[in-house]
Design brief:
By secondary structure, the chain is α+β, with helices and mostly antiparallel strands. It has helices at 4-17, 19-29, 46-58, 63-76, 120-130, 138-147, 158-171, 237-242, 245-254, 259-274; strands at 38-42, 97-102, 108-114, 135-137, 184-189, 195-201, 222-225, 229-235, 283-289, 294-298, 304-309, 315-318, 320-321. The protein has a single domain (38-321), classed as (Glycosyl)asparaginase (Glutamine Phosphoribosylpyrophosphate, subunit 1, domain 1), CATH 3.60.20. 37% of the residues lie in helices and 21% in strands. The protein binds aspartic acid.
Length: 324
Amino acid sequence: MITRRGFIKSSALAAGLFPFLRKFNSDKTNTGNVTKPLVLSTWIFGIPANKEAWRVLEAGGRALDAVEAGVQIPEGDPNVSSVGYGGLPDRDGHVTLDSCIMDDGFNCGSVAFLEGIMHPICVARMVMEKTPHIMLVGEGAKQFALQNGFREENLLTPQAEKKWKEWMKNSGYVPYGKDNHDTIGMIAIDKSGNLSGACTTSGLKYKYHGRVGDSPIIGAALYVNNDVGAATATGVGEEVIRICGAHTIVELMSNGYTPLDACKAAVERIIKIKKENIKDIQVGFLALNKHGEYGAYAVQNDFEYAVYSETENNILKKSNSYFQ
Ligand code: ASP
């Protein structure tokens, strides 16, 4: 019996030996029915974020501009306690932000451990467009932002400060890492059929000062290959980094996996590594392919994502998951 994996392996081998077969295979998967534009994002705050992104997509704008505009909504919302302004601080009381962005031409930009700037996603884009680098961190990222017209602001809201102080009373200073897994990852395809993605977070609450998660790491929480698809992640960043989550998913899609199967396979890698400890971990992946097909898969059953297209008017969907 030929398993799907075996089939993929043998077709890949055949494609290597006979290049014309590769073309035949990829033509075969292209049905010509591409759902576009389309935007997807993680968690319930993906709804207002998608709405903003949709404005850009509907007007014929680039997916890159759409995702940058979209994720700024939770970044600026003081009531979202896991992204940008209003994010819960690290265990020393600092709100430190991680963001990245990637376009349809493998261009990418990222900032990590950035303090005092409300919209790290815009700084990440500026790193992508105005520097020869991909990633700036900490003080250097802040300096770069200030030199480029961003304003320094206090991002620790009274609400977040209160929660942190309460945590300090009983925490024993041990960072809490299981919950508060609520990064926004957004991926989109525009009317021209081009893909882009953005990801932004304040990271795990009460983390060690200086801790950086998966969210600003290209290939971990975000990856885009315009010929194949895009993927993003949320959850315990350490686990996503360990398997290069988003890149793994895009590679699996390039080998013929559907977005759902690719997300599932990535989660299964984490499950295999963590064994029985998996019950305390949440990781969720969301992926989109070049044809506008999408899927999501998570470890725990509380992962939801928002979808906006011509036919699915900004609805919230429950992801498939390992634990039901
Ligand atoms: N992935 C983020 C991090 O580890 C957390 C999250 O998604 O909430 O920093």
